[in-house]
Amino acid sequence: MAEAIAALQEEALKALARAQDLNQLQLWHQVYLGKKGALKKISRRLRNLDPEQRREQGIKLNNLKQKLEQAYEKKEAELKKREKRRASGEWFDLTAPGYWPRQGHLHPLTQMRQYAEDIFLRMGFEIHEAREVDDDFHNFGALNIPPQHPARDLWDTFWTEQGLVLVTHTSSMQHRLLKQAQPPLRAVIVGRCFRHEATDARHEHTLYQMEGLYLDKKVTLTDLIGTFKTFLQEFFQRPVQLKIQPSYFPFVEPGIEFLVDCAICGQKDKSCRTCGGKGWIELAGAGLIHPQVLTQAGVDREKYQGFAWGFGLDRLVMMKYGIEDIRHFHRGDLAFLHQF
Ligand SMILES: [Zn+2]
Question: So what's the pLDDT on residue 75?
Fold first, then answer.
């Protein structure tokens, strides 16, 4: 019985501390001090005790009743005071969570574009903006893709009525930069590209591309791999594993493809949607600049070599944040955008 009384005291006082307004306080009173309350219930057990025990426990119960009633009155006075102050408008709760109106912010792609540009600037690259509409020559011809070349089928293209192209890659700027280049040239070209194709979780008709363009003496594939890997480690802030496999692009020779280990599943989930269970994600096409591209831009191909890569910024941002579908970026869905 003595333990039951002590337990009731502890429970009742804790519950009282939680009461936030007068309604809750009344409820508390009913539960502990009311006619059918916990105190009444426990008092009934006195009957079963012998006279001496009954007297002893009776005193304890009485003390508890007084204690609870006093605590109740104190709390009631406190809550009444608080409600009065609140009603008069002078109420100010220092412990209430702060309110800050929700402000707009840059789109996650823009944030990450600036983040990536900063890394390249620190590595000694200059940043160039790509055109969004260009002519056939700069998008294809200057990149060793003459008319009727079967490689044109690699890109499903939007054309304007004037015969201009919505650029399919930022490489459309290569010719201009190479033509004016005074090596060493270290440039990164950023812009939007457009593909006339069906969309899915990994493909979108509009995407951001970041292109690296490097021209100097004695440039090899090792320079390309080292530069690209350094960038990725800075971008993801972790050591990355690169897989390099041969690939074909008309404007490089040899052409390679960079794949990076899937950070979403850690290469462990066969049902991973981001990497399709393969553990690797294709990030970029790259290679040494094709001698034909250099010659067209008037660069002495005996003296200079260069490398180039192009990667989709959208896919890189997906990897960084674990975004499973590329189409979220252009949906204009605030619930998605406010997470960044
Ligand atoms: Zn994966």
Answer: 93
Which phi-psi region, left, alpha or beta, contains residue 163 (left: φ > 0; alpha: ψ -120 to 50)?
left
Active-site residue list:
155, 169, 195, 209, 252, 308
Measured CA distances, 246 to 226, 255, 259, 304 (Å)? 17, 6, 11, 23
CB 178 within 8 A of CB 215: yes
φ, ψ of residue 239 to 5 degrees: the values are -70, 130
Low-confidence residues of the chain, pLDDT below 70? Answer: 90-93, 97, 99-100, 154
Strands annotated E in the chain: 126-129, 133-134, 165-166, 185-194, 206-216, 242-247, 252-261, 280-289, 305-312
Q: How far apart are CA 60 and CA 40, in angstroms?
A: 13
Give the per-residue pLDDT at 326.
86
Cβ contact 255:249 at 8 Å:
yes
CA distance 293 to 314: 27
Ligand 1 center to residue 326 CA distance, Å?
Answer: 15
Q: Say which amino acid occupies 140.
A: F
Amino acid at site 25: L
- Render 106-153 in DSSP notation, one character per residue: --HHHHHHHHHHHHHHHTT-EEEEPPSEE-HHHHTGGGT--TT-GGGG
247-273 burial code (b ≥16 CB/10 A, e <16): bebbbbeebbbbbbbbbbbeeeeeebe
- pLDDT (tens digit, 9 = 90+) per residue, 324-334? 888 889 888 88
Q: What is the distance between the alpha carbons of residues 194 and 197, in angstroms, rounded to a whole number?
A: 9
Q: What is the pLDDT of residues 222-231, one digit of tens each?
A: 999 999 999 9
Measure 190 CA to ligand 1 centroid, in angstroms: 27
pLDDT in tens, 49-62: 888 888 998 999 99
* Statement: the pTM of the whole predicted model exceeds 0.85: no
C-alpha of residue 322 to centroid of ligand 1, in Å: 10
What one-letter code names the amino acid at 136?
D
Separation of CA 256 and ligand 1 centre (Å): 22
Q: How is residue 120 written in tokens?
A: 């390249």
**What pLDDT was estimated at residue 148?**
81
